[in-house]
TrEMBL record:
<dbReference type="InterPro" id="IPR006367">
    <property type="entry name" value="Sirohaem_synthase_N"/>
</dbReference>
<keyword id="KW-0627">Porphyrin biosynthesis</keyword>
<dbReference type="GO" id="GO:0004325">
    <property type="term" value="F:ferrochelatase activity"/>
</dbReference>
<keyword id="KW-0560">Oxidoreductase</keyword>
<dbReference type="InterPro" id="IPR028161">
    <property type="entry name" value="Met8-like"/>
</dbReference>
<comment type="pathway">
    <text>Porphyrin-containing compound metabolism; siroheme biosynthesis; sirohydrochlorin from precorrin-2: step 1/1.</text>
</comment>
<dbReference type="InterPro" id="IPR036291">
    <property type="entry name" value="NAD(P)-bd_dom_sf"/>
</dbReference>
<dbReference type="GO" id="GO:0043115">
    <property type="term" value="F:precorrin-2 dehydrogenase activity"/>
</dbReference>
<dbReference type="GO" id="GO:0019354">
    <property type="term" value="P:siroheme biosynthetic process"/>
</dbReference>
<protein>
    <recommendedName>
        <fullName>precorrin-2 dehydrogenase</fullName>
        <ecNumber>1.3.1.76</ecNumber>
    </recommendedName>
</protein>
<dbReference type="Pfam" id="PF13241">
    <property type="entry name" value="NAD_binding_7"/>
</dbReference>
<keyword id="KW-0520">NAD</keyword>
Length: 174
């Protein structure tokens, strides 16, 4: 196992995302589910950020400019999520020197952590990782699991077992 699974409490922790493209947006949306203080630095923002750019929020700030070394100050986590591989690598080296955990979106080998695919219902969290070897497969596995759920349940002949599964669904709705 290359990566150690861990669930982080990000309450009031400073998290920096460098870059605001499609991949950064995905990291951002997942961070919004936590209580992290998020800062995003990027000269260009993907248009899906627009609705967030319009709103004032205590949870996030956006800086429309290039990355500067001092952006790392006080950070607990960093996402190097630009389309410039060399820059992502430089950010990784700088963050590591400051003991900040870093996810390098285009290079799992130098990342301190990777993100799994998730299904989240309340406090229930299902995650799938492939140790970064087949990233697109992680999401696929979860999709197939949920698509197949209905069919699997229909085919369970044991009434008691089927009821227990519905009970599980009820818990997931909380
Ligand atoms: C699960 C998910 C979580 C998330 O990112 O939030 C995630 N990738 C997702 C989507 C996705 N990934 C890719 C595509 C385009 C696919 C296509 O269509 O071709 C799409 C779809 C899209 O982008 O729409 C391709 C890809 N991904 C990575 C590379 C390597 C590189 O760039 O060098 C390449 C390009 C090379 C390749 O294909 O191999 C790298 C990583 N991706 C990881 C996670 C980490 C390992 C996880 C694991 O251990 O399995 C890791 C190491 C980095 C990290 O931790 O970030 C998320 C699903 C979220 C959801 O929607 O639920
Ligand atoms: N981790 C994953 O799941 C995954 C999936 C697909 C692709 N990738 C890789 O992730 C990288 C990013 O992909 P994307 O689709 O988000 O790219 P993108 O082109 O949509 O976005 C790149 C962002 O980086 C920003 N940027 C560029 N220079 C910068 C600088 N000096 N300072 C701050 N921000 C800067 C740009 O303004 C832009 O917002 C690519 O290298 C791609 O290969 C990773």
């Amino acid at each position: 196992m290359k990566f150690y699974p861990i669930n982080l409490n990000l309450k009031d922790k400073k998290v920096l995302i460098v870059g605001a493209g499609k991949v950064a947006l995905r990291k951002f949306k997942r961070l919004l589910l936590t209580e992290a203080k998020i800062k995003i630095v990027s000269p260009e923002f993907n248009q899906e950020f627009e609705s967030f750019l319009k709103k004032d929020s205590e949870q996030y700030t956006f800086q429309k400019r290039k990355f500067r070394n001092k952006d790392l100050f006080g950070c607990f986590l960093v996402f190097a999520a630009t389309n410039n591989s060399e820059l992502n690598q430089n950010i990784t080296v700088l963050a590591r020197k400051k003991n900040i955990l870093v996810n390098t979106v285009d290079n799992a080998e130098i990342s301190d952590f990777t993100l799994p695919a998730i299904v989240n219902r309340g406090e229930l969290l299902l995650t799938v990782s492939t140790g970064s070897s087949l990233p697109a497969l992680s999401k696929n596995i979860l999709d197939i699991m949920s698509e197949n759920r209905a069919k699997i349940i229909e085919n369970i002949e044991d009434d008691k077992l089927r009821k227990n599964i519905w009970l599980f669904d009820k818990c997931c709705e909380i």
